[in-house]
What we know:
This protein is of the alpha/beta class.
Amino acid sequence: MAISVDAQILIWGIKRQATPDRQHMIDRAARFFRQCQREHQRIFLPAQSLAEFLVGYDAEQRRLSLARLSRGFLVAPFDAKAAVIAADLQTDWNKLKAIGDEFGLTKQQIKADINVLASALAVNASCLYSEDKQMKSFAQGRIIIRPLPTHLPPEDEAYGGSVQQSLLDDDSADGDPPT
């Protein structure tokens, strides 16, 4: 069984970047990814989420980030299958607009969220991890939407008393990709 993750979780856990009010999510997301790695969990990155993650990187940083991400993630493309699913999820635009209005989203943000969901659904992910509250409504019951787990074992417990470096770890503290 595979799971999927939304962009903000990838940004917190891999780039180690967050807004001031979400700094606590950086460690939580990083521990989540290490737990998934220990459990050999297949993680799909919807192409839309990957694009959002890569924003702000120059060509070399993108190349390095893609190489690093390929060690622990699979890309869920926005292909023909995902396009059909996205179209199906958008059949009631008035309902989607109402959800978007409730959460202060633009039409572009709604469509990006739909594309994330469609890519995750197209690869048969069992769930999508996202902290975006609107995702559950947009998913229309077609995929389980989960927040990051709140109860993850501390690193020393998770590794049986010794902290090991994860393939997903980065030595830089500023979120830049490894060199």
